[in-house]
Structures are given as C-alpha cells and as structure tokens.
Automatic annotation (TrEMBL):
Transmembrane residue ranges: 25-44, 56-85, 105-128, 135-153, 173-195, 226-244, 256-274, 281-298, 304-323
Topology in membrane: Multi-pass membrane protein
Location in or out of the cell: Cell membrane
Keyword Transmembrane helix among record annotations: yes
Molecular functions (GO terms): transmembrane transporter activity
Keywords: Cell membrane, Membrane, Transmembrane, Transmembrane helix
Any single Gene Ontology cellular-component annotation: plasma membrane
Name of the protein: Monosaccharide ABC transporter membrane protein, CUT2 family
C-alpha cells in the first residue's frame, strides 16, 4: 500500500487558512508578542539582549512562571485563584520562621510547601464541597493569608541567611539561572500531567462542562479541589525562590504577582471560561510581561507607567479571545 502526501499548493492553502483563524492568534499571542517586544527593545536599546540582561529577565520571570502554571490549572476549570500571591507570602513567612528557628533548609522547604498546600486545600474544599463561588472564597483567603502572615511575623521582614539559597538565586548555567530551570521543570511536568494523564483530561473536561464531565464519570468536585491544591503547592515553591532572591521573607503581600499571574494566563491563550489552553502559553506570557517591564526600565520609563502598559497588553489579549473559535 502506498501513501500520498498533500501537494505544496494544498499545504500552502492549509497554512493560509490556519492563519485566518482567530484561534491561531489567540494560541500564539504570547509567543508572537514576545518576539515583537524583543525586536523593538533591541532596536531601542542594544543592552536588552546582552547576556547579563537576559539572565536578569530569566531570573525575574521564574517566580511568575511558577505562579502562572498554578493559576493555569485553576482557570482551566473555569475558576480563579485570587489568593495565590498572599499564599506565597504566607508560605514565605512560614519558610523564614522555620529557617530562623533552626529547622534546616530541607524541612523549611517542606514547611513552605505545606503552608501553601493548606491554603489551596481549604480553597478547594470550600469551593467544591461548600458550594461557595471561587471569587468569594479566594478573595477571603487573600485577606486571611495576608493577615496571618503579618501576625506570624509581627509585621516585620524575616531575614534568611543561607549559602545554598544564595547559590540558588545567583548561580546558573551561563545565562540560564537555576531558578529559571526549576520553573521550566515545573512547566514541563505540568504539561505532561495536563496532556498525558487521565487527571489532565478530567481537568479540561471539568472546565469545558461540569455537567458533561459528571455524566461521563468525572468526579468534578475532586478535580476542583486538586487544582486549588496544585496552585497552593506551587505558591509554596515560588515562596522559596522569592526568599532566595530577596534574602528575606516579606510579610506584606505583593499584589503585582496576583495580577501578573492572571495576565500571563490570559496572554497565554487560556480560556477564562475553562476547558481550553496550554502550559506553554502562560510560560511565554510570563516571559512577555517580564520582558515588557525590563525593557521599559532600560528605556528609563517611569515605573508608574509600567502597570499601564501591562494592563493595555492584557486587555488587548483578552479582547482577542472574544474571537476564538
């Protein structure tokens, strides 16, 4: 039996047809946007693509990448985690307290991850079993986690001095920091889980239609609990990298991480209605947001204008998703 291949003209027609579909631009918006940004900033300031600046951007993007991956799992089920940045803050404080009490690096890392997991588990339980909307639950968790972090730390930063943590934040392979490699590993694992396991299939099915998923035997309540648990665990991991980067556990929550984690997911083409998306998109979305902020800083643009630029980019990406088919 012989096989035939499509003639070049047919292939060209198929490519042209694909380019005319809005879904293509939604899926690849973050990648194309990153390429355009890199080109513009390189022309405006050649320092943008210097090895030192590339390493700086990758280092800065690691934490956001991990948070965006966690947020992606939640949004793929048509939910949202407004507490992710506060969870990271609480986990950072727990990590700092464990380190300063002499628990050691390994046990302190476990404490941080468990603190994040606890918040995620409570969120998931109240949403899946309690029947409370995700917006209200995670908004309440945002406030509760922030308050608990301030109470535990007495409102003061907890200085963490650790040679391994310093090596983690400062070291790497050439221009590639260790922290970014960790974030990349998380993204690869998340991709495999989402697209190569029954759990990932159930996550997408739950986001597509809860009723349809339940009709096929998917335990949607457990899936929702699981994705918020994943978000909490990854917030705990991000907390460790954050402490390694700044050298202390800051009890004040940084809402920029919350807004940018959602922004990276939107830029990555993940549907806010659930059921559609990828992991690579949010990763490139995190890189795009980091590159945008870094490029504007190099050009001397006031930091007051940077959130405005990010907001415009995100609204543009969200508007594009309206035409997805």
């Amino acid at each position: 039996m012989t096989t035939t291949t499509a003639p070049p003209a047919s292939r060209g027609t198929a490519v042209a047809e694909r380019l005319r579909q809005p879904s293509f631009w939604v899926e690849w918006a973050s990648v194309l946007g990153l390429v355009v940004l890199v080109a513009i900033f390189t022309v405006l300031d050649p320092r943008f693509l210097s090895s030192g600046n590339i390493k700086t951007m990758l280092l800065a993007s690691a934490i956001l990448t991990i948070l965006a991956v966690g947020q992606s799992f939640v949004i793929l089920t048509a939910g949202i985690d407004l507490s992710i940045a506060s969870t990271m803050t609480l986990a950072a404080v727990a990590f700092g307290m464990a380190m300063t009490s002499g628990k050691g690096l390994f046990l302190s890392c476990i404490v941080a991850v468990l603190a994040g997991a606890a918040v995620g588990l409570v969120n998931g339980f109240l949403i899946a079993k309690g029947g409370i909307t995700d917006f209200i639950v995670t908004l309440g968790a945002l406030s509760a986690a922030s308050g608990l972090a301030l109470i535990l730390s007495d409102g003061r930063p907890i200085t963490v001095i650790s040679a391994p943590l310093f090596k983690l934040s400062a070291g790497g392979f050439g221009m590639i920091p260790y922290t970014f490699l960790i974030a990349l590993g998380v993204a690869v694992l998340a991709h495999l889980v989402l697209f190569s396991t029954p759990f990932g299939t159930h996550v997408l099915a739950t986001g597509g239609s809860v009723d349809a998923a339940q009709a096929t035997g998917v335990r949607t309540a457990r899936i929702k609990m699981a994705v918020y648990l994943i978000s909490g665990v990854l917030a705990g991991l991000a907390a460790i990298l954050l402490v390694a980067r700044v050298g202390s556990a800051e009890p004040a929550a940084n809402t920029t991480f919350l807004l940018n984690s959602v922004a990276a997911v939107v830029l990555g083409g993940v549907s806010l209605f659930g059921g559609k998306g990828s992991i690579k998109g949010p990763v490139f979305g995190a890189l795009l947001l980091t590159a945008l902020t870094n490029g504007l800083t190099l050009l001397g643009v006031s930091q007051f204008y940077q959130p405005l630029a990010v907001g415009i980019v995100v609204v543009g990406a969200a508007f594009l998703t309206r035409f997805e088919t």
